[in-house]
Design a protein that fits this description.
Elements (H helix, E strand, L loop, with lengths): L16 E3 L19 E2 L1 H10 L4 H8 E5 L5 E5 L12 E2 L2 E2 L7 H5 L2 E3 L3 H5 L5 E3 L13 E3 H7 L2 H15 L2 H4 L6 H11 L2 H10 L2 H4 L4 H9 L1 H16 L9 H11 L3
Antiparallel strand pairs: 1-9, 2-4, 3-4, 5-6, 7-8
Helix pairs in contact: 6-12, 8-12, 9-12, 11-12
């Protein structure tokens, strides 16, 4: 059993136990939902906008702000309320109003990743207990393994979706190059965060005339946000990282070769 009732960093393996329980009866209930920075992953936005039954564009406009990361690519954060407590827009006296669709950062609490690129490449992820002095949940005797806790919070699905995004944002291509092209930044933002606008882009422009995509996949991405998100990541890999995530139609390839004078 890891003693998380004392200060100090303990790196936890999936099978390690820790003590924590959050209930409405605790005096600190929802305090962790105030004055906090939460950066949203693309899958977070899909889940939240669908929970609220609004399109991604209005969601982004009302609930988020955008920064430019070191690579020059946009990063989206959750906009806190402009009140004395700088509270999350979804927190209430009774808890989280979007609890079933809460972001990855909230879902994983009170754990935090301690993995590196090396451990992730080996398929290993480690965690530590967050140092949150006001949190009374740590005083509980209720224990859980790291894996058990993450599974109950449905974190593995979010990890899978996040990995598609991280494969792009942590690519070596971007490690020594900053994206300054405004059009690339705009297209990246649309494909990663504004998924409903990306769907319009796919189906209401000449996009489908350019790429060789099976009819079954076209049907899926027309209706399914998660399928469309996976497709969007492949499109970004194709355009930004020059990977073969998508195939151009033979006629388009031929036209490009002719334009370049390639036989």
């Amino acid at each position: 059993m890891i003693d998380n009732k004392h200060n100090g960093l303990n790196v936890l393996k999936p099978e390690d136990d820790f003590c924590f329980e959050c209930t409405r009866q605790l005096d600190c209930f929802t305090r962790c939902c105030r004055n906090v920075n939460i950066f949203l992953m693309p899958y977070d936005i899909i889940q939240l906008k669908n929970c609220l039954n609004i399109l991604s564009g209005p969601f982004l406009q009302k609930y988020t702000y955008t920064l430019m990361g070191e690579s020059g690519l946009p990063v989206v954060g959750l906009k806190m309320n402009d009140d004395e407590q700088t509270s999350c827009p979804f927190v209430t006296d009774y808890g989280c109003a979007v609890y079933e669709s809460r972001p990855w950062a909230c879902r994983v609490y009170p754990l935090q990743p301690e993995s590196t690129k090396i451990t992730e490449r080996k398929g290993k992820v480690y965690y530590s207990i967050m140092d949150v002095p006001f949190c009374l949940g740590f005083k509980s005797d209720t224990s859980s393994t790291v894996k058990g806790w993450l599974d109950r919070q449905n974190v593995p699905v979010y990890q899978e979706m996040e990995s598609l995004f991280k494969d792009i944002t942590t690519a070596s291509f971007l490690s020594d190059k900053k994206i300054e092209n405004k059009q690339i930044q705009k297209m990246f933002f649309m494909a990663c965060y504004d998924i409903d606008q990306f769907r319009q882009f796919v189906f209401e422009t000449s996009f489908l005339n350019q790429f060789d995509i099976e009819e079954q996949e076209i049907a899926r991405i027309r209706q399914d946000d998660t399928a469309l998100y996976r497709f969007a990541m492949r499109w970004i890999e194709f355009g930004l990282l020059k990977q073969q995530g998508l195939k151009l139609k033979p006629s388009v390839m031929l036209a490009r070769k002719e334009k370049l004078g390639i036989k």
